[in-house]
Each structure stands twice: as structure tokens, then as C-alpha cells.
């Protein structure tokens, strides 16, 4: 028979991209017990126009504690977002974290007016750490939305709704680019921090902040390649679906053209994943190798199917059957990333 049944298991995510727990030691809550000066009201001489002096050290310590509290809250938010039992979304609530950072910034702004040169160096360093972490929080927020869009695209892919999958993966890519811009801002802010001025800052650890930036960057690189590559697979699957319909209808010339388009599109996905193999960190490399293997196999298979459909169109039935057999054999080269 000229008709060949061809089933491709839907491509999945190729690995978990969740990241959690990459920040900070636990901080002790600081309590400020500043007493307000009482107005005795005895006479004009007793009333001075001196305001209570600003305790710069206390404000620096308070800002440091607020920053560490923000770190801990982000840790908890990321952990919760990546718990499938407690959350069906990877997005995190950033407003409470941002509020902590605003408190820290306000304390430092107040402290500036009375700070010595040495204290000012520490204030500026801590402000840099706050700016860095604020950008990092924005990156986490955008990345969480990227994961959600990716999951949506993956679900559409499983349902063979390839056009919807393409749109979702494009949104995931846009969110990933947004996260990439924010983590770049975090990196720039980090590089402006004076490490010597941070020596007397108790809670904030620059080493841990640097590690957090590195880890988020690694996830973003992998997510960018993955969202692009699987979007390209979805484009190819859309053409492949059209080719199957044409083949079922006996429209062999049209089927051959659609299979050829699909083969070219699968090859584009293959080159994306192949490039990713050398660009992503070691933790994601195996996933990219599996995906590049699959994409190349699909490209080769659909190339055989295009030749087979053309042979059927020319009346060379045996050649057509042989090409379809070769295409199905090409699919056996790689393991299914979902397994």
C-alpha cells in the first residue's frame, strides 16, 4: 500500500529547568528599639531645636538585615513555585521582596546625611548590593513566567495544537529575553560593588550573590535555547502534520513538498540544539544532546518521506515504500527524551 502510518511521540521539555535555593544564609531578624526624646515642656530654655541624632550604624545594620530578609523570602518563593504540590505556576510573587528592598534603600538614604566617609563607602556598597538583588528578583520573576509559557506550549504540543504551541514558545522566548536583560543589570550592579567596603557588612555575602547570578544565567541560557529549539520543532511538526494529511488524501506531490519543508525546519531545530551543546552548562548539556539527536533524526526521516511521496507521485511504488521504511528506521536512532 502507498499509505504509511507514521507516529512521532510529542517532544517534551527535555529536562527540568527549576532552580531553587541558590541564595543566602538565614538572617536573624533585627529589632530597633530607638527611644523618642520627650518634650518636657518646662520652659523655652529646656526646649532645644536639636533633633535626635541619626544612628548611622543602626540604619546600615537595619538595611543589611532587610536585604537578607529579601534574600530569604526569594528563596522561599522560588522553592514554593517549584513545588508541584503547592503551586501550579512557576511565577513568584515579587512585591513582598521588593518591599523589603525598598525598606533597605530608605534606611540607607536616611543614613547618608550623617555618614562619615568610611560609613558612606559601606552605604554605597550596600546600595550596590540592593540594586544587584533587585535586578535579580526581576530576572526570577520574568523567568517564572517564561517557565509557565513553556509549560503551556508543551501542553499544546502534546495535543498536536502546533500553532498554539508556537505562540506559547514565542512568549516563553520573550520572557526569557526579559530575564536575560535583568540578570545582565544584576551583573553590572554587582561589578560596581566595592568588596572591601562590604567586609564589615554582617549579613550580605557577595560570594553567594555572585553564585546566584551565575546560576540564573546558566538557566537562562538553557531556557533560551530550549524555547527557540522546541518552537522550531513545533513549526516543523505543523508542516509534518500537513504532509500526513496530503499523503492520506493521495496528494503525493503536495505531500512531498510538505515533508521537504518539514525536513528543512527540523534541521533548523537541530542546528539550534547542536549549538546549545557547547553553550549551556554541564547540567543541561545531556538534554541538548538528546534534543539535537532527535531533531536530526526527524530531519532525516522526513527527507526520506519526501522522497517516498515523490516516488509514489511518479508511480515508483517500491521506491516509495523503501524510502518510507528508511525514514522510519531513522527515527530509531535516538531515545525519546520523554522516557
Automatic annotation (TrEMBL):
Question: Where is the segment annotated Disordered?
Answer: 26-53, 77-97, 315-339
Source domain of life is: Archaea
What name is this protein filed under?
Answer: Uncharacterized protein
Amino acid at each position: 500500500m502507498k499509505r504509511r502510518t507514521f507516529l512521532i511521540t510529542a517532544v517534551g521539555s527535555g529536562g527540568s529547568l527549576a532552580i531553587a535555593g541558590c541564595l543566602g544564609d538565614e538572617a536573624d531578624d533585627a529589632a530597633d528599639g530607638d527611644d523618642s526624646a520627650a518634650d518636657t515642656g518646662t520652659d523655652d530654655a529646656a526646649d532645644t531645636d536639636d533633633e535626635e541624632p541619626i544612628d548611622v550604624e543602626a540604619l546600615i545594620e537595619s538595611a543589611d538585615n532587610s536585604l537578607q530578609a529579601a534574600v530569604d523570602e526569594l528563596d522561599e518563593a522560588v522553592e514554593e513555585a517549584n513545588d508541584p504540590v503547592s503551586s501550579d505556576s512557576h511565577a513568584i510573587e515579587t512585591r513582598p521582596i521588593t518591599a523589603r528592598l525598598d525598606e533597605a534603600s530608605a534606611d540607607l538614604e536616611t543614613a547618608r546625611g550623617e555618614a562619615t566617609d568610611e560609613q558612606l563607602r559601606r552605604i554605597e556598597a550596600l546600595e550596590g548590593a540592593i540594586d544587584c538583588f533587585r535586578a535579580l528578583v526581576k530576572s526570577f520573576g520574568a523567568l517564572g513566567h517564561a517557565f509557565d509559557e513553556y509549560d503551556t506550549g508543551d501542553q499544546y504540543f502534546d495535543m498536536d495544537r502546533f500553532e498554539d504551541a508556537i505562540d506559547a514558545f514565542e512568549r516563553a522566548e520573550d520572557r526569557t529575553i526579559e530575564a536575560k536583560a535583568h540578570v545582565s543589570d544584576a551583573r553590572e550592579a554587582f561589578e560596581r560593588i566595592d568588596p572591601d567596603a562590604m567586609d564589615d557588612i554582617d549579613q550580605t555575602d557577595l560570594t553567594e550573590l555572585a553564585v546566584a547570578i551565575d546560576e540564573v544565567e546558566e538557566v537562562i541560557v538553557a531556557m533560551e535555547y530550549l524555547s527557540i529549539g522546541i518552537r522550531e520543532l513545533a513549526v516543523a511538526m505543523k508542516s509534518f502534520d500537513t504532509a500526513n494529511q496530503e499523503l492520506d488524501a493521495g496528494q503525493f506531490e503536495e505531500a512531498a513538498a510538505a515533508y521537504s519543508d518539514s525536513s528543512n525546519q527540523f534541521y533548523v531545530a537541530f542546528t539550534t540544539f547542536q549549538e546549545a551543546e557547547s553553550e549551556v552548562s554541564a547540567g543541561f548539556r545531556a538534554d541538548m544532546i538528546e534534543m539535537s539527536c532527535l531533531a536530526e533524526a526527524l530531519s532525516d526521516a522526513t527527507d526520506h518521506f519526501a522522497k517516498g511521496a515523490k516516488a509514489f507521485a511518479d508511480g515508483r511504488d517500491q521506491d516509495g515504500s523503501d524510502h518510507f521504511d528508511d525514514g522510519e528506521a531513522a527515527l530509531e536512532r535516538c531515545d525519546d527524551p520523554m522516557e
